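Quick check before the chapter quiz. The format below is the same one you will see on the exam, so make sure you can read both the input and the output lines.
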Amino acid sequence: MRISKEEVAKIAHLARLEIGEADLGRFAGQLTDILDYMDILNEVDTSQTEPLYSPVEHETPYREDEARSECSKEEVMRNAPRSDGEYFLVPKVV
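Here is the expected output.
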């Protein structure tokens, strides 16, 4: 399936992307290559293949959710661009 420069420009417009005229041909070729490869993959017989979410079988490790303090208040406040020693000072937003 061939993708034209006009189709790339339309896709870019819909995605709110600015693509220069020089890049339209390059992206058209790349998208054409991707769609051609998808056509090859569609020819593979997967009727006897079980669907799976991941090729790796693993379980999610769980841990107890416990609150703990890893940094002192002074350490945290040292990273603030502005503070009064007690709170972060931020610009007023109206």
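If your answer matched, good. The chain has a mean pLDDT of 90.
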